[in-house]
Specification:
By secondary structure, chain A is α/β, with parallel strands linked by helices. Chain A folds into five domains: about 5-215, 3-Layer(aba) Sandwich (Rossmann fold); about 220-375, Rossmann fold, CATH 3.40.50; about 405-475, no CATH class; about 485-540, no CATH class; about 580-670 and about 770-815. In chain A, helix 6 (about 125-135) crosses helix 8 and helix 22 crosses helix 29 (about 755-765). Chain B has a single domain, classed as Purple Acid Phosphatase, chain A, domain 2. Classes of the chains: A alpha/beta, B alpha/beta. Chains A and B meet through helix 18, helix 27 and helix 31 of A and helix 1, helix 2, strand 11, strand 12 and strand 14 of B.
Chain lengths: ~800, ~240
């Protein structure tokens, strides 16, 4: 099977070809697409490329200047790293094969050259594939394509990037009908979804690629740091455990310290350095740091200069650092698959177990860590809810293709619905999206003369103006970040607004709430905010050890449904409590005594007075996002019942609502009835800031508004044309517009997690257990402790105006 | 008619004005209703450059204007400039919009103030066109004058204010006034905004001036100097 030259090369390295590697060669020989599921460290990437290298080695070099293999990775850095790794077999076997990367960093001249005279192997990202397909020469460039390799497919397939990539693949299928696809993936609960993703879907039934399973690695060794003396009631910073973490770093060669948010990364980094008496080289890495700084950390890591890096999900994926031998996860793991992924970053040798330390930062997280460890050891993973292809992404794709050449709507419809995320799309919806791209798709036909797409006499759709292609290229892609503002370090003794080194970027909404003199943590330092100028937010260094303004904005990933289920089960089984640290076991036992421990299918709702207020606390364990949405809807209902709710707070496990009147006599079955997802939801969406943010993302991806015109403008930062204004007008006049539908579908799984809330309400129907207590229950304490700390992220309503006014009046009228 | 208790009242140069949360000012003594920066057809203006945003902004503005006119039954209406987003905007109104606007204009003593977006507002819709108009203690013009003039009611700047509470900020359009002069909020559905802390706005006023922020059912007054911050005060309530 393996050509002589290749067998010799394996031999010279002292390697044996692995069974999954030869399996991939066999599938390639039969021209079959295939999904390879294997843990890191198994030579997975090489397996993906071997068939291409063998094929190319057999072709006479002079006859080629044609693209043979396209490799797509979710990370630019990974594409660059893989290209570097490919150079070894190519040069050591003396193969005349050209492998090149194409990313946002590739020079214009090189990109042009690649279009006209492509390398044999091109390594790139989903966004770049979109841009390539928008070129008039795309048909020529991809006609010779034989193989597409999709790396880290598990991280892409079920997202908007996955939709974009799937649509790109459907176009490649038209341009190069004979090509085959290789998917490389970490272990997933449902490989069938990925197998479908790899194949063009037929009109009837479904097509799946072949599946090859790599050899499973050794089971990891997972420890959970927990003390029998003290486990915090709430919080996310694990301050109590910094000594343990430091000790774990000290006993490792190189450790990755994963946290869930940027703010946690900053604070953990600071806290570690406070106890780093040996001055071990510990660095910080997260997505908001200036790219140059991140590159510096990565380079130091590659050289082996660092003992630990505190990082966020930015390092979940990416290039392999052989030296990492321990992974420390601070805070909740959120999901079993995420935990496996992170643990897999340590020790890339299959036969040795990876070492991991989980550091829960509060009691609920102790439960979550135990549940996650049990799941990982049992080899069970979270299933993912499969999303349908997003309509805003389809709009972008249609514009992309029209930049390349005129298209026939019916042919494009067939092509689009062959992509697995879009198999459900109806012709009617497709036409609506097409109409949206062409003229906005409004019932009031006002924009025919400004149309972006027009019909040719032959009935094909063509781009109305070349300027639009330029606009598309500047705005392509589906990753929309919060509007960011640059953080500039003001030089000592110089006025605000002059010069200033860029430290990185932060969300505009965070900066906007600061006033000059406030301190906050960024880039590992406590910084003093000086003011906003046209080119960014200016800060200076300060000697203060603690920042005044916390920048915690919750986790990005909600607790997975699968893990939530396991946590609920663990809580409901008193016989397992002995395995938990003493304070946690005691906490649950007193809860059982004073209130009740809900059974796995039940929803416990407690009410009790405290101070002058009345509380209602429930424990759905469905993640913060779903709880926030539930909180919004429940308070609306309580308001209607004239119970005068004042506020609520949601965490991953519970929702607490408080008000001025006792809520103990409310009919909970009615309060939690599924019909809240009708009018109440609708009324709330009309004003929800989270929903408007979702709309903004859809508006940008679909090309309705431009990315660049959304943030700052030259005339001053505040002069922005807000997508909120568009939202209000569109909702008022055309509530069923295709873009509002795209927004609603996003909200189902995104920031509002409506889908999960729906499932929960269905699950607990007739299974609500209520307790009217005379005081706060043990289980309710963590939620109540969070009340003063954080309210719902991004949601502010007019109550703020009331409160501000009331506080002014109170201040003015007080006679003391 | 009775005026809702919730209406915020403000005095400018001794004249009492009612600030409506829909973004218009009502001057009861003169039965005069003032709109500023309506920017009719801003949507279609942007559409010309490829941003096909919903073409309903004119209708939204007309609907709100109609409701205010019905509520206050003014004998005079002043459109304080930038009523049309560009010189061609009036020609892009459709029949329904034209008829609606004409019925407003012809139903009352209508004054178009010239703005920088519409230096020559269309006269074929009716109403009179002028650069500025002085009535009683007030003078109405589009751009605030460089030399402060008591009683000036102007637009042009689209003031907005932000309040912050417990880490949440809320930004709304507002009237800005120190009791001597006032800048009106933009009325147009797609009009952007400028923070009252921007020197362009704050330099117009004496040391203390107020932002009258537009809420859903009423107007709220907050001090406008600096960014108002009320972190934590609510906990004491």
């Amino acid at each position: 099977m393996l050509p002589r030259r290749f067998a010799d090369w394996f031999g010279s390295r002292g390697w044996q070809i692995r069974s999954h590697q030869s399996a991939l060669i066999e599938h390639a020989a039969r021209g079959e697409s295939v999904l390879l599921v294997a843990p890191t460290g198994g030579g997975k990437t090489l397996a993906g490329f071997l068939p291409s290298l063998i094929d190319l080695a057999n072709l006479p070099a002079r006859r080629r200047s044609a693209l043979h293999t396209l490799y797509i990775s979710p990370l630019k850095a990974l594409a660059v790293d893989v290209q570097r790794n490919l150079e070894a077999p190519i040069s050591e076997m003396g193969l005349a094969i050209k492998a090149e990367t194409r990313t946002g960093d590739t020079s214009v001249s090189k990109r042009q050259r690649q279009r006209h005279s492509p390398p044999d192997i091109l390594l790139t990202t989903p966004e770049q594939l979109g841009l390539l397909l928008s070129n008039p020469g795309a048909a020529l460039m991809f006609a010779s394509l034989k193989t597409v390799v999709l790396d880290e497919l598990h991280a892409m397939y079920n997202s908007k990037r996955g939709d974009l990539l799937a649509l790109g693949l459907s176009r490649l299928q038209t341009l190069a009908p004979g090509h085959r696809r290789v998917g490389l993936s970490a272990t997933v609960a449902d490989p069938a979804a990925l197998q479908r993703y790899l194949m063009p879907q037929p009109m009837q039934g479904e097509a799946r690629s072949a599946l090859v399973l790599g050899q499973a690695g050794a089971k990891p060794k997972i420890e959970i740091s927990a003390s029998d003396e003290y486990v915090p009631w709430s919080g996310h910073l694990a301050r109590h455990a910094m000594g343990d973490i430091m000790e774990a770093i000290r006993t490792a060669k190189t450790a990755l310290v994963f946290v869930n948010t940027r703010a946690q990364a900053e604070l953990t980094f600071q806290a570690l350095w406070r106890v780093n008496s040996d001055n071990l080289p510990i660095a910080l890495h997260h997505g908001s740091l200036a790219p140059a700084q991140r590159r510096k950390v990565e380079a130091a890591m590659t050289r082996g200069d660092l003992r630990a890096v505190v990082c966020t999900s930015t390092l979940d994926l990416g290039i392999d650092w052989g030296a990492v031998d321990k992974v420390i996860c601070v805070g909740a793991p959120k999901g079993a698959a995420r935990l496996v992924q992170r643990i897999g970053r340590a020790n890339h040798r299959l036969d040795e177990p990876s070492l991991a330390l989980l550091v829960p930062s509060n009691r609920f997280e102790v439960l979550e860590c135990n549940a996650a460890r049990d799941a990982v050891m049992a080899g069970e993973l979270d299933g993912e809810r499969l999303k349908h292809g997003s309509l805003d992404v389809l709009a972008q794709h249609i514009l992309c293709l029209s930049c390349s050449k005129p298209f026939d709507a019916s042919a494009l419809f067939s092509e689009v619905r062959s992509a697995s995320p879009y198999v459900h799309i109806t012709r009617d919806d497709f036409d609506k999206v097409l109409d949206f791209v062409a003229t906005g798709g409004y019932a009031l036909k006002r924009y025919d003369r400004y149309a972006k797409l027009r019909k040719t006499p032959e009935g094909l759709w063509r781009l109305a103006h070349p300027r639009l292609a330029q606009q598309y290229r500047l705005n392509a892609g589906v990753i929309i970040e919060d509007p960011m503002i640059e953080i500039r370090l003001q030089a000592k003794g110089r006025p605000t607004g002059v010069g200033g080194r860029v430290l990185g970027q932060m969300e505009e909404y965070f900066i906007e709430q600061l006033t000059s003199g406030d301190t906050f943590v960024f880039s590992g330092n406590v910084l003093r905010f000086e003011g906003i100028r046209e080119d960014g937010a200016y800060v200076s260094r300060t000697q203060e050890a603690e920042a005044q303004v916390p920048s915690y904005n919750g986790g990005q990933f909600p607790l997975s449904t699968f893990l939530a289920q396991r946590v609920r089960e663990m809580v409901s089984k008193p016989e397992t409590w002995d395995l938990l640290p003493d304070p946690v076991g005691e906490w649950l036992r007193i809860q059982e005594l004073r209130s009740v421990i809900p059974k796995p299918g039940q929803l416990l709702v407690e009410t009790f007075p405290r101070g002058a207020k009345s509380y209602l606390v429930c424990y759905p364990f469905e993640g913060r996002l779903a709880h926030q949405t539930l909180g919004m809807l429940i308070t609306r209902r309580l308001e209607r019942l004239r119970l005068r709710p004042i506020g609520f707070v949601a965490n991953e496990y519970a929702l607490a609502v408080w008000g001025l009147r006792d809520m103990g006599n409310v009919d909970m079955a009615e309060l939690f009835a599924e019909d809240m997802l009708g009018d109440d939801l609708d009324a709330w969406l009309a004003e929800s800031a989270l929903y408007k943010r979702t709309f903004r993302n859809c508006a940008i991806i679909s090309g309705l508004i431009e990315r660049r015109s959304v943030g700052r403008e030259k005339t001053g930062r505040q002069v922005t044309f807000s997508s909120d204004l568009i939202y209000d007008v569109l909702r008022e006049h055309e509530p069923d517009h295709i873009l509002l539908r795209a927004t609603y579908e996003d909200a189902g799984t995104g920031l509002l997690d409506i889908a999960r809330l729906t499932d929960m309400l269905k699950r607990v129907r007739n299974r609500i257990v209520t307790r009217q207590l005379d005081r706060v229950s043990p289980l309710a304490v963590p939620a109540l402790l969070e009340i003063s700390k954080e309210m719902v992220a991004g949601e502010a309503n007019e109550d703020i105006l009331h409160e501000v006014e009331a506080s002014l009046i109170e201040e003015a009228m007080r006679v003391d | 008619m009775s005026i809702d208790n919730y209406q915020m009242q403000a005095e400018v140069n001794g004249e009492r004005l009612v600030l409506d949360c829909a973004g218009a000012a009502w001057w009861p003594a003169e039965r005069t209703l003032v709109f500023s920066d309506i920017h009719f057809e801003k949507g279609s203006s942007l559409a010309r450059f490829g941003a096909l945003i919903p073409p309903y902004d004119t209708r939204t503005a007309l609907k709100r204007m109609g409701a205010l006119i019905a509520r206050y039954a003014p004998s005079r209406v002043i459109a304080l400039g930038d009523s049309f987003h560009d010189r061609d905007a009036a020609n892009r109104l459709d029949g329904f919009e034209r008829a609606t606007l004409a019925s407003f204009v012809n139903g009352t003593n209508w004054v178009w103030i010239e703005g920088n977006h519409d230096p020559q507002p269309p006269t074929w819709l009716g109403g009179r066109v002028t650069a500025e108009i002085a009535i009683g203690g007030l003078v109405f013009r589009h751009e605030p004058a460089a030399i402060p003039q008591a009683g000036e009611i102007a637009g042009h700047l689209h003031p907005c204010a932000t309040v912050t509470l417990r880490g949440h900020s809320l930004r709304r359009r507002c009237f800005a006034s120190d009791g001597t002069r006032m800048v009106m909020p933009a009325f147009g559905a797609y009009a952007g905004g400028l923070g009252v802390d921007d020197p362009v706005i704050s330099s117009l006023f004496a040391q203390d001036f107020a932002a009258y922020m537009l809420g859903g059912r009423r107007v709220y007054a907050v001090p406008a100097r600096g960014t108002p911050r009320f972190v934590g005060v609510a906990a004491a309530r």
